[in-house]
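Example 3.
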Amino acid sequence: MNRSARLVTAALLVLGVGWSIAPRSALPLYDGIGFPDEPYRFVQRPAGAQETKAPTVAHGTASVTGAVTGSVVAASAEVAPQISLYIPKGKLAVPSGTSKVTVTGTPVQPIATGHGQFLWSDVYTVSASPGTTQFHAGGQQATITMRAASGQRPQPSIAYYAGGSWHLLPTYAQGQDIYIAELNRFGQFAVVGRNPLLVSQLSGGGRKSSGGGSAVGLIVGIGAGVVVVALFVLGRMRRARARAAEDDDENEDELADDDPDSVYVPDDEEDDR
Amino acid sequence: MLGAYRRATPYVGLLGLAAAVALRVQLAGSAGAQSELAAIWFAAALGVVALVTQQADVPSARVVRGLFVGLAGAAVLCLPAAIRHVALGGIVSPTDGYARWAVFVIVVAVAEEALLRGSLFRAIEQRAGVAPAITVTSVAFGLLHAPVYGWGVVPLDIAVGVWLGTLRAVSGTVAAPAVAHAVADLAGWWLR
């Protein structure tokens, strides 16, 4: 195996490890800018928020084979989904004789929060059919991913409602306004922040963007792209000049501290020499 | 004098990267990754740092080969999400605004690659070899996303950085990781 093949193999292994430890719903977003979301769809729209269609239900089914449930993926239809659920294979305990399990995330009316807690999303009831379905403990985690109506900070948490109050779950940000937490029970879930939801900072079309919402942003963006390209054209010209200068003066010792052996050269480039 | 500058180049590149990230965070404010203005200035700042730290003896770029290597690299990056979406969740229907969004995504991705897998990679490679170059640029790549996208993305982004660095090393040109990065980002529109 040559050096390039070894490098590629090692990189693929590292990439596999990265994927294996990343949250299951991690976006294939490695950079750029956030996806332009549609305005958040509220069950009970706050004053000043943009009018939208009603929020949708996340719905997923899996077959049951020998009491082992298949994996379930359910996501609501908004862009980006306001709720998505991932339940791995075998994670659900279903009554004997069950051939199919259905998991839904349904938007419901808001539930009151405690002191210092504020709803930053709709409340969703996550349920399963048959109704006696439960989660197995241990094994691979099931996850709930929820979109907040705003990218406000400090970071909110996904919370579940039980015993008359909201309980915050360990939550990880998945971008500006999307959050993920472990799902190990059915019930009511919402994104809960420590400050009131600011209508002026709603994500999607209803927000006030610091990037501008008109063609100005696009024009400036194209301009920036031209500037970057121009910088590199100039850079290449500078490199070419520097190279020519080095060729003209082989005795120049300014690179004496560089070890040419440390410079990696692709295998076929070595062959070219 | 020139030798001293070249020795300092990796540090200049990393400090410039940190400054560009700080600029982006400051400009973005609560808009975070949604801020186009912050993204533009971030890209411009990266471009300037990449130019300042560019090395004089970069091997001649193999752009055409780099394009193909980059496309293959992008396919690898998109594969898990594509399988998941096709097999389990379907493809999200695009909405209006793709062209505008794509412009910003391409500019930022290319600017990042120009600095990380371009000048910074080369500067470290010359001093310490290809493995340290991949390692340092990958860690920097992972960390630069944390302020905007959260710490949850860092492990995967470091792994992706290793992959992009490998594409740079085997192709001999920054065109490969730039294409892979940009195409994977653009595919994210459908694979989210």
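Chain B has one domain: 2-191. Residues 2-191 of chain B form one domain.
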